[in-house]
Amino acid sequence: MKESHTMDILFVLCLFLVFTASAISVVMIGSHVYSQSVNTMETMHNNETALNYLVEKVRLHNDGHVTIMRQADTDVLCLKEGTQTNYLYVQHHYLYEYTGSSFAAQKGQKLIACDRLALQKKHQLLSITLTIKHKTQSAYVALVGRDQA
Fold this sequence. Notes:
Protein name: DUF4860 domain-containing protein
Organism: Intestinibaculum porci
InterPro entries: DUF4860
Distance between the termini: 96 Å
Number of helices: 1
């Protein structure tokens, strides 16, 4: 009779351990999925914010003063306004902005972490491609104004 009580207790204890291990593994899997979702959403938010910032800057200066220049294997978006030019570029894995009469990359202000900025102007269409944490998004802006060739 004593053996049957020991087996009952042992069975209940094993069942409790299996339940506990299952609960812990479900919580750990859920935590991993949640952290991946948060990282993906943060990356997409940063990417969309930076891309929207660039598009709005172009739209503000979309009067014939939007040009692209290459500086040390980097595309630089140049937005001329009067005697000053607003330069947007990626350097050291950050999107930078600098305003001045001539380009000075070292004086730019850090805006957001960014891996790559690719710009292309074909006819009246500006293509902006931005890569942040290996996620790439593109936007296109129709250029208007006098000298957009």
